[in-house]
Amino acid sequence: LPRARRCGKRKGTKFRLKSSDMADFSARRVMMVDTQVRPSDVTKFPIIEAMLAVPREAYVPAAKQEVAYVGESVNIGSGRVLPEARTLAKMLDALDILPSESVMDLACGLGYSTAVIARMAKSVVGVEPIADLAAQAQAILTAQGVSNASVQVQATGNFDVIVIEGGVEEV
Predict the structure, then answer these.
(1) Contacts of 88 by beta carbon, 8 Å cutoff, 6+ apart
(2) Mean pLDDT for each 10-residue chunk of the chain (171 residues)?
(3) Rounded distance, CA 121 to CA 50, Å?
(4) Contact 46/119 with Cβ under 8 angstroms?
């Protein structure tokens, strides 16, 4: 990846992305899939298509956008991480989510996994018990036009698939 650089105009601690930076992130997204996901024996088209389509950089804090596509987990704050692409892809590959299924995505952080799953499933409810992260995740999903997913602090209902990101003490 190229050296970290600031892009756009400074507004507080966040930076605005220029259209040339969007193209750079798009190329990084393709590289992420080609060098991290496919070599891990994840070849199902719905997973590949979803990971190519969802802008990972939109689901991390602005200060972490430059490292959104590295081959490791990215700390997103409040004790949460965005799992490395390979790990998420392998989980989704094992789950074999169908387009007709409703999915609960537990510990969704800022919503990246929820957005990826939303491209594969009928509907997704992301659950993020940290209220601030849940609110940010919902705002990002809305801004990204993800209409078949929501993020809540708690959720009940019937789901065909439950994705758990990380460890849990009790179920």
Answers:
(1) 51, 112, 113, 116
(2) 37 43 81 95 96 97 94 92 95 96 96 98 97 97 98 94 81 64
(3) 11
(4) yes
pTM of the predicted structure, to 2 decimals: 0.84
Angle at the Cα of 165 from the Cα atoms of 80 and 89, rounded to 5 degrees:
110
The token pair at 112 is 């990246």
**Pairing verdict, β 80-82 and 102-106:** unpaired
Three-class SS of 36-71: HHHHHCCCCHHHHHHHHHCCHHHHCCHHHHHHCCCC
